[in-house]
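Team,

Forwarding the record for the chain on the shared tracking sheet. I've put the sequence and predicted structure together so nobody has to dig through attachments.
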Amino acid sequence: MNKEQIAAVILVLLAGIGLTWLVLQNAKPAVNGGGEAAAAEAVKGPHGGRLLSEGDFAAEVTIFERGVPPEFRVFFYDKNKLIDPAEVKFTIELHRFGGRVDKIGFSTREDYLLGDQEIVEPHSFDVKVIAERRGETYRWEYDSYEGRTTLTPEAVKNSGIVIETARPAKIKTSIKVHGRVLPNEDRMAHIIPRYPGIVKQIRKRLGDAVAKDEVVAVVESNESLQSYDVKSSIAGTVLKKTITQGEFVKEGEAIYTVADLGTVWVDLNVHRKDFDKLKIGQAVAIFAGEGTANASGTVSYISPFGAEDTQTMLARVELPNPKGGWRPGLFVTGEIIVEEATVPLAVKASAVQTFRDWEVVFMQDGNVFEIAILEVGRRDAEWAEVVSGLSLGQKYVADNSFVIKADIGKSGATHDH
């Protein structure tokens, strides 16, 4: 390398040192209790952490989590030169959502100070830092928010956001099934003429209502050649008609099937993996889709046999049908409640969102909203059990929580180390 090249390298190095000095001077921390806010944009140090400085002294605060739980590692500099961390007494306070304060102490490790506790997620807090070195005390304050946003009461109202409190709830474990509406065979009659003969009159058609002892047909006896009335033994609806006028009716032949549709059967097909979960008396919700109101009942019968073609088992629900809306032949879906348990803490299922790799809800404290990272246990269509991550009585966004998630995404409140 010639003299000109050496001189050029020296100039570049000097320029870099000068630029670093200017950046450090522009950080403008709150020192010695001055109370000024840290710079709007964090200055990064050589280890990628936040650089806090006053005069020639600087502390680089990092959250290290490669292969270990998140922990504070702090490096110190004097005139941009790394110094022995044992020279510095250092503490950090993390002021979290809801008033919780984590106080972090430090001990010496190689060329840095190591925090004495895990920095639990989310890494969202207001930070207060105190460093003592050679009789001088340095103080810095800054915020580092993740999964947090602020909304005015008007914005909350206009977005349709609903706030509730975390509380105990009843969680239902269910199995989903499909089935079909059928007549109640215990309320069905096959109308059979007493004597064979010729059908002279037909009084009822398919779907007609029939009163008990009402005449449904007139038959001329083949033996006496006298006509007699054929009557229905029950009140109901004609489900089946097998005669036409003038034809011959054989002995013992049913000419009508009449059913009382005031109740119907709903036969549900249960997959074999769920056989051992079924019990008589379990609650069932029945859904027929648009045009028919949902209904509820209980399991009244479980077949002792399986269906060879579908490898399913039949579970039956008997439903009241006073208005006739549950029509035989309709396909339905059902939800059989196989377990019902009260859990000590739950949130609305609609409140749970995903954030990074977590399941979260958004806590509320005044106008501020922040994620709570949940461990979710049992859940159903309405509730999700909270195993950890939220406290009893904590306010959270129960409905339209996606609005908060979108606002956090726009505000850029992301993971900042």
